[in-house]
């Protein structure tokens, strides 16, 4: 992959516009691009392109829809990681309860080194 010159946020918006992306609120888009990388958002608009080689967007592709997708994915990720954390803690607790180590069998034993 060739090294590409970095673009300002304004240039990123202009590039997306030239490729057919619509913006309802460019100030909002600028704020989003200040906190979320253009390249991170690329995954959320990929299927909005009618020509992925030349990066031309289909009619009606809107930046705010990209942000909605990103925010939905972010919220889903948080829910899933919270659930995974709960499952992991329960699993560790069950392993320690059902399969105590020798150190657990003696009074005052320590669980150091276990899981």
Individual helix count: 5
Radius of gyration: 24 Å
Please mark out the parts with pLDDT under 50 across 5 or more consecutive residues, or reply none: none
Shape: elongated
What fraction strand? Answer: under 5%
Major pleated sheet? 2 strands, antiparallel
Q: Report, as a whole number of angstroms, the end-to-end distance.
A: 42 Å
Descriptive notes:
It is built from five helices and two strands. The protein is mainly α and 115 residues long. The chain has a two-stranded antiparallel ribbon. The protein is elongated, with a radius of gyration of 24 Å.
Q: Key features?
A:
single chain, 115 residues, mainly alpha, two-stranded antiparallel sheet, 2 strands, elongated
